[in-house]
Structures are given as C-alpha cells and as structure tokens.
Amino acid sequence: MYSNLEALGIDVGSSTVKAVAVDGSGVILWHHMESAEPRVVPQVDHFLKMVSEKFGDISGIPLVATGYGRRLVHVASKQITEISCHARGVFKQLGHGGTLVDIGGQDSKVIIISSTGAVEDFAMNDKCAAGSGRFLENTADRLRVDIDKIGKIALSSTEETYISSTCTVFAESEVISKIANGIAVETILKGLHRSLTLRIVTMIRSLGSLPPLMLSGGVVKNPAIRYMLSEETKEPVVLPDLPQLMGAYGAALIALT
Predict the structure, then answer these.
(1) pLDDT of 28 strictly over 90
(2) How far apart are CA 135 and CA 120, in angstroms?
(3) How many CB atoms within 10 Å of residue 238?
(4) Residue 78's pLDDT band (boundaries 50, 70, 90)?
(5) How far apart are alpha carbons 102 and 83 in whole angstroms?
(6) What is the pTM (predicted TM-score) of this model?
(7) d(Cα 52, Cα 187) in Å, to the nearest integer?
(8) CA pair distance 42, 37, nearest whole angstrom
(9) Could you give the CA distance from residue 111 to residue 90 in angstroms, rounded to a whole number?
(10) Is the per-residue pLDDT at 102 higher than 50?
(11) CATH number of the domain at 7-87+245-256, out of 3.40.50.620, 3.40.1190.10, 3.30.420.40, 3.40.1130.10?
C-alpha cells in the first residue's frame, strides 16, 4: 500500500483506456492501460478496483477524466478535454513548450504550448479516420501485417506509392487496387505513412510551428511516423516518457490543483 497517493487521471480513448496515479509532486506512482471495451462504465469500475487494491481506500482521492468517453466517468470530479490534459502532461514531463502532435486512434491534434505550459492554439482532425491511428490499423489488417511492425516495414522500402484518398474507406479501396497491380506491401505502407504524415503537417503549418516538435499518443511509437514528421517539418522530434499516458497523466496533474 502507498500512503502518498494524491490524485488520479483516467483517459478513456477510442482504442485504449489509460489510468495514472500520482503523488503530491506529480510523480507517477502507478499506471495501467487496456484496450477499450464497448461498455465504458464497467471498465472504469475495474480500473478503480485495481487502484484501491494497490493503494487502499481511494474515496477521497480526486479523479479527473479525459478522452473520447470522459463524460461516462461519472465518479470523476472533473471532465477535461484531451487538449488540456495532453498539454499539461507533456509540459510537466519535458519542462518546456513547443508544438505538440498527439495522434490517437480516432483523431489527431496539434497543440501550441507556451513557455509557461498554457495552450495557445490548437487544430484537430476528427472528421475522418485518415488522419489517425485507425487509418493505419485498418490498412495493416487488410495487408495482414502486424500493426507493431508496419512502421519498420514502411521504412525498409526505397520506394513509396502515393495514397490520394482522404477517407479511410476510399483509401482502403485504393490500397486493394495497388495490391492487385502488384505493388509491394512495403511500398504501399510507406505511401500510407506519408499520407497520414502530410495531413498532420498541414495542421502544423496552419498554426505556425513553435519549436521543438513534441509527440504524444500511441501512434508515435511507430518509427515511420516519427521519421516522416521530422523529415517533413525539418525539426527533430521529442518524445516524453510513456507517450501513450500523457492524457491520463495530465488529467492526474489537473486533479492535484
């Protein structure tokens, strides 16, 4: 049992659910992540049960919820947008502002963070999955490629084929057509990563990039995304520890205040 637990954050995303427990200084004491279940409330209850088994009675511990399903976390003291939470988490971890790119399962966001940690501006793509992790997952499944390996496979290709469709449904049809025309899987994957990256770079340029370029979200573990974002923006990329947890971590930090 830990007696120095001071706050909890939970990020109910479209693909995964994450929880973080912190002490009074914002140090992460515990974290957990699972694939998102269709029924949010029982899954959140399961997370809270794990926390109570680890730390004891948590009835007085403040909890902030964020993410796609944050409004379903009825036990939360506050429900805060992912933009505020990711900005808070990344700023705490890295200690500076800049341009934060968060690529989630359902959407992608670009957030300008000031030198004091405030959100100055943001852009968000939530209209089509073609700018998100789901875009990569669907195509990986179609190509029968392990999602954890697609970035490495994409970077192994010396060629890439352009994916012009901006909708994930039409992009899948385009991929099928390219397969039928004998284009190599790695070449298709490289073009697919380029397509997603260029959509994000368009958002970055619409805001005006503030160096450095920082990344959060599960998709940024993909080496091709990191490489191409750096290549297209001409900026080195900076990752916090545990980039997938930045939303939940930021929520826990906000719960401390």
Answers:
(1) yes
(2) 28
(3) 16
(4) very high
(5) 9
(6) 0.91
(7) 48
(8) 9
(9) 11
(10) yes
(11) 3.30.420.40
Task: Give me the phi and psi of 82, to 5 degrees please.
Answer: -60, -30
Mean pLDDT, the chain, integer? 91
Nearest to 85 by CA among 9, 8, 6: 9
Query: 170-197 burial, b if ≥16 CB within 10 A, otherwise e?
Result: ebbebbeebeeeebebbbbbbbbbbbbb
Please report which confidence band the pLDDT of residue 1 belongs to, taking 50, 70 and 90 as the band edges: very low
- Would you say residue 52 has pLDDT above 60? yes
**Spatial contact of 11 and 82, defined as CB atoms under 8 Å apart:** yes
Query: Span 243-249, mean pLDDT?
Result: 96
Spell out a b/e string for 109-135, using b for 16 or more CB atoms within 10 Å of the CB, else e. bbbbbeeeeebeebbbbeebbbbbbbb
Which residues, in sequence order, are bridge partners of residue 102? 109, 216
Report the 3 state secondary structure along 88-139.
Answer: HHHHHHHCCCEEEEEECCCCEEEEEECCCCCEEEEEEECCCHHHCHHHHHHH
Comparison of pLDDT for 172 and 241, the residue scoring more:
241
